[in-house]
Write the structure tokens for this entry.
Amino acid sequence: MSSQSQIPVVVNGACGKMGREVVKVVAQAEDMTLVGAIDKDPASLGQDIGDVLGCGLLEVPVTNDLEATLVMAQGQGLSVMVDFTHPDTVYESVRAAIAYGVRPVVGTTGLSADQIQELAEFAEKASIGCLIIPNFSIGMVLLQQATLQAAQYFDHVEIIELHHNQKADAPSGTAIQTAQMLSELHKPFNPPEVDETEKLPGARGSTLADGVHIHSVRLPGLIAHQEVIFGAPGQLYTLRHDTSDRSSFMPGVLLAIRRILPLKSLIYGLDKIL
Amino acid sequence: MSSQSQIPVVVNGACGKMGREVVKVVAQAEDMTLVGAIDKDPASLGQDIGDVLGCGLLEVPVTNDLEATLVMAQGQGLSVMVDFTHPDTVYESVRAAIAYGVRPVVGTTGLSADQIQELAEFAEKASIGCLIIPNFSIGMVLLQQATLQAAQYFDHVEIIELHHNQKADAPSGTAIQTAQMLSELHKPFNPPEVDETEKLPGARGSTLADGVHIHSVRLPGLIAHQEVIFGAPGQLYTLRHDTSDRSSFMPGVLLAIRRILPLKSLIYGLDKIL
Amino acid sequence: MSSQSQIPVVVNGACGKMGREVVKVVAQAEDMTLVGAIDKDPASLGQDIGDVLGCGLLEVPVTNDLEATLVMAQGQGLSVMVDFTHPDTVYESVRAAIAYGVRPVVGTTGLSADQIQELAEFAEKASIGCLIIPNFSIGMVLLQQATLQAAQYFDHVEIIELHHNQKADAPSGTAIQTAQMLSELHKPFNPPEVDETEKLPGARGSTLADGVHIHSVRLPGLIAHQEVIFGAPGQLYTLRHDTSDRSSFMPGVLLAIRRILPLKSLIYGLDKIL
Amino acid sequence: MSSQSQIPVVVNGACGKMGREVVKVVAQAEDMTLVGAIDKDPASLGQDIGDVLGCGLLEVPVTNDLEATLVMAQGQGLSVMVDFTHPDTVYESVRAAIAYGVRPVVGTTGLSADQIQELAEFAEKASIGCLIIPNFSIGMVLLQQATLQAAQYFDHVEIIELHHNQKADAPSGTAIQTAQMLSELHKPFNPPEVDETEKLPGARGSTLADGVHIHSVRLPGLIAHQEVIFGAPGQLYTLRHDTSDRSSFMPGVLLAIRRILPLKSLIYGLDKIL
């Protein structure tokens, strides 16, 4: 494959949990070249990122100089920066990437609505793509899209989400988001057929305004799972997503890197580019 | 098969939903003979019970004379009366059966603890078996036994029960019973690893004293389902029972009819004869 | 509701298993009026179809005169004939309905490709809608649509279908159809990562040309279930449909009755009108 | 806890995948003391095993001197050697442990029936416990025990096992073992109700002699899962085990270490000590 067809990719946060995975899949992707690995970890500074990850020499040293790396990447053509860093610094990094003409694919959470609005205006002015992706799981986006489609034909639906017992919050953010997407259909889900009595409080789970129940199971041995169950007389339609490893997010990262090139503005959410 | 080895069976409540199923399976069982069909339904009185059920002539007319039927059954050897009638009359019927020497297999609910105690004493005195079986589902008893066995090795467990949305109570009686069986092990289940926060109240379901969570799902299309999920680091062990039809209770009824013959006293619960 | 907004509906095969369900839901639908009940069953002829079904008087006698019923229905406005009859007669019935200006919604199976082609031409000439629907399950169509959507992003997929043990054929027609829909994407599914060895023949199930495995489970207690499982590193995405009762097909029948009115030609498959 | 109540434990194969996990849980167990870490890995020799594993100093250096370690362990009281090494050397190691009076808990596979017989005689003579455990998963043993219990009451059963697509063999060893346990009941499972036709070969899975079907699903994203489904009219009873991590085997290892102390002979299989 000629170098013209290669997408130069910088990974910001290259030594973090997600960053490491991104480095590996970018290095293996036939249409991408890893050109920069940025991280603040002093122990890795100057070392080859491939050595740090134990996956063989990649000839890209770890650096903490964001600007120099962006300048270098921009010089290699239509380039992309994948950002898995920290809520405190992500705004400045993304703004810098746009300023230097490197398209940001942002997985770091914690940007405020105001910050996203400002980045959108900045990207618009620069006429450069910017992707902010709170959840890179293609499978979960497919589940949510299929959920919305089914919700047109089913009036009854409940959500069960199951996570390991070290997760403190219930329900999970994704389950709440799924229920909110259903709420936005402004359809009265689960019209009651009988007067329900909870003999033990909480048995019927939690509910959002429009009647969608969410049940949260927490057990060791579980990882991250979500089930949406639609019911109608004589039938059930169930959508389930199971995540067992953060490698599951990598196809979404690669897709975002490929889809961002022709974009001219900020887009929020993986569903918009699927 | 010679008639000596046949068990004479009377069905009390023969025209009810459960009674009809019992009549059919008793009539087909090679080791049983249907000798009596008792019901108060005036429309069926005097008709052949096989005609009433639309399953071909059985040469047993529907009668409302309990005593005469018991006398006749007793005359045919070690006989059994299956009772699926009504809470108001079940005590008297069972007492009569014991008095006339016909062994009662009782599926009717509603007997008080006092009444059961009195029947136990009466059966003891008469030295005759009596089975009171609140749930004839062999599958559910197996699930509960396997649950107790697993609970010796797992410290974390949750219950999900799923029923049609015309069920008013939550959790189901069987789910509560299963949780109580776990509670009786006096083991602190589900010791928390983090401080849990319910962002929406009820998300984590209901709990009994010893920490077993029960989640109740209600949807049209569901029938009657229960899942017990055990979790430990790196593994899950799940037991699930699905009921789709009351025919599922018939193997338990046939088992009870066969197991009652050698008994000399009252026994409560299908688990005791499995 | 004024009679103008009511859709006059004839049910052909009104005393059959599916026909009975259709009669009941049409009679209850606020925007439909049952105007004809056709059946060849001599025992029901001339009786009120509501009496035959035991659901209360409907003031529609069972008749075996198809033509007279079609003429009558056509006189009442834009009318529809739902056909659940027999492969031997369905072609003639549908042709007659089109000829008399009554829109056919056809659930009867057994029409040949040639016959469907001829009916399509006939409907086109008459400028009248005709719906041929081999599977009225909206849930299953949703599952198949979501399957095709997911197949764009996942390379690995297997199908498990589970049916009662009185089903003679394996795999089920719907599972084969689902696999064929995947085959038509001309994507090499399930590229092998290792040399597979079947220690017991058949372990890996059946396969269509493009590598989609289908596994068929047959057990009493099962009714009709299908599961499509997509896998990728670190994640699974599972779509499952459970049917427990033929009432599950009725929303699809009602939808077809409503959607056929504006049509001017033959359409095949529920997915086309969803 | 006083040192008398501590069980001295040697891990043979301490730097292997399973050995590492064993070292960690033994070090954390309140009633055990890690006294020896044997491995042939030259890179680790002489280093503290805690440092090798990155879990903090354990003050036990890695050694390749089996005999010296056994002598030392035996000197500390009723001691145990856990062996996760290699089929080529396991026989000699276990024989040595017995000879030196250290109880072997053997997870290494590959011992022949003859070798196991010889070890049994040797342990008997030495009057010392020896546990050979092909599968340390307590959850899977519980599933198999519950399967045998259910098989007394259900005549229909199928097995679905699901593994990642890098597993070359199908069905899995555990699924075959489960089916064999059912076969040993000499019960004709799954008596056919209809003449089955496989429209696609392999659809109905593989079968052992007594009619138990096994279906093997292989997908990335799966780890190791087994489902046993029992069916009867109107009901299903399903047992499922999911393994996501080898940490799931550690409770079985700890149990074996505790249960071996009072034993005087060789025992095969975790089920025997549960």
